[in-house]
Design brief:
Low-confidence stretches: none
Number of strands: 21
Structural class: alpha/beta
CATH topology of the largest domain: Rossmann fold
CATH architecture of the largest domain: 3-Layer(aba) Sandwich
CATH superfamily of the largest domain: Response regulator
Mean pLDDT: 88
Largest sheet: 6 strands, mixed
Shape: globular
């Protein structure tokens, strides 16, 4: 392969070199290690705003790349992606450029527009294996900022990208914490000033000088919290454990050392008492209502639920269907962990596209799964509600704060949080007065309340 110019790097500088060469009638070959042109602009921060391009008041990084690609459309050039230049050798007045895929290109001219070199994320050197979180909860670049809308986000870094993304994500409702190892930043002074102004107003949280020591999953965090609580030697503790994801041995040791009342999530035999909601009350009310007003409900749940209440609600559904002499229908979707909305959406898209629902009424294990399911229905144009022209009815459990704002608003069964909270505190004081131990483990469950809205 021969060409007038070989350009190593298909970022903005490399793309503009094609334009300048084209004006001189020269043909170019662009080589880049990434899977698309644009360099770090496309790979790291496509949504990041750029304000310092001459004659352009505002562009996102991806818009800048798209404009450059449009600018070079009239000219002839070759684009080699997913290949890295491994060798550059002088060949009697010309150059031979060799890639890791075995391509060899002869040229009179080589332009190196590789920036910091072949892009690979700089990962923190930590003791824990955090690879299972990468791409799910740990990200090295932001390709779609809407993913982080209204989420809690922690950004580690002190350069322009860290400062700019702190400001951008804060604009779309993310609760941002910026962590840097020094109080001084390396980014643009104006961006640093804006970040400090937001921190002064508590619209972002700024932590300096701090370093990232390790990353743990929820179970490890729970273990650390319990160890810290134990060291404080409290008279008593109200504990809402993770449930199935908890390290039961560690919970048991903690309850043995510290007078403990469990609430919300029960672990059989642990703690001096459990105060929570009656899962059968939740499910019995929703199943009875849905069966009386339309087709029998299909139970929609995760195949590997993190919350122990999910298993109790499944059993309650089966028991209630048997009591009503109705045939039960179960749909279990793939997914684990606590990202219920995304799991519900992905699972519902798959089920709905396959037309695999046995009935036109869905009863979700919890509201967060239902919120994901409603999102999938919207994407597929499926009308949800109790009107005659609706295709599905959807109901759920928990009365999540957002359930009244979904479209349509979600029919659900609500916890009696006020009673659970009041009883939990009263029981804790009773335990402390009893010297930290009861003769027998106590258990108090509060009935749910059916809330009828527009979804069913």
């Amino acid at each position: 392969m021969n060409n007038d110019i070989v350009i190593i790097g298909a970022g903005p500088v490399g793309l503009f070199t094609v334009f300048e060469a084209g004006l001189l009638g020269l043909n170019c070959t662009l080589i880049d290690n990434l899977d698309k042109p644009g360099g770090q602009c496309s790979e790291l921060y496509p949504d990041k705003p750029i304000f310092d391009i001459p004659g352009v008041p505002y562009q996102t990084a991806q818009e800048h790349v798209d404009a450059l690609l449009k600018q070079i459309e009239p000219f002839s050039y070759d684009l080699i992606l997913n290949e890295r230049v491994d060798e550059l050798s002088d060949n009697n007045g010309s150059w031979t450029v060799a890639t890791n895929a075995g391509k060899r290109i002869s040229t009179k001219n080589v332009f190196i527009a590789a920036g910091a070199g072949a892009f690979e994320p700089i990962k923190p050197n930590l003791k824990s294996d955090y690879s299972r979180f990468e791409g799910k909860q740990i990200f090295y670049s932001i390709k779609n900022k809407e993913v982080f809308k209204d989420k809690k986000v922690v950004i580690f870094g002190g350069g322009d990208s860290a400062l700019d993304w702190t400001l951008e994500l804060q604009k779309i409702g993310a609760q941002v914490t910026l962590v840097h190892r020094r109080d001084a930043f390396r980014g643009a002074p104006e961006s640093e000033m804006k970040v400090r102004e937001h921190a002064a107003r508590d619209s972002i949280k700024l932590l300096t000088p701090y370093i990232l020591q390790d990353i743990h999953g929820d179970t490890e965090i729970e273990k650390t919290i319990l160890d810290t609580l134990r060291s404080l030697r409290p008279a008593g503790v109200l504990l809402a454990p993770l449930g199935r994801a908890s390290d039961k041995r560690h919970i048991e040791e903690f309850c043995r050392d510290v007078p403990t009342i469990l609430f919300d999530s029960n672990i059989e035999g642990m703690g001096e008492a459990f105060i929570g909601s009656d899962n059968f009350s939740f499910v019995s009310q929703t199943v009875e209502y849905l069966s009386r007003t339309g087709s029998t409900p299909t139970f929609f749940e995760m195949s590997d639920p993190a919350n122990p209440n999910a298993n109790k609600r499944r059993n309650a559904y089966l028991a209630m269907m048997k009591q009503l002499e109705l045939e039960p229908h179960m749909v279990q979707i793939e997914g684990s962990g606590w990202e219920f909305e995304e799991i519900g959406r992905a699972g519902a898209l798959k089920i709905l596209k396959q037309d695999a629902l046995p009935t036109d009424t869905i009863l979700c294990s919890n509201d967060r799964l239902a919120i994901g399911l409603l999102s999938a229905c919207y994407e597929l144009g499926i009308r949800v509600g109790r009107e005659k022209d609706s295709e599905l009815r959807v109901a759920s459990h928990d009365d999540h704060p957002y359930s009244k704002f979904t479209c349509p608003s979600l029919t659900t069964a609500a916890h009696d949080y006020e009673s659970v909270a009041s009883q939990s505190v009263d029981t804790l004081f009773k335990l402390i007065e009893a010297g930290g131990r009861f003769n027998n483990r106590e258990e108090k469950l509060f009935a749910a309340r059916l809330i009828m809205r527009d979804s069913a």
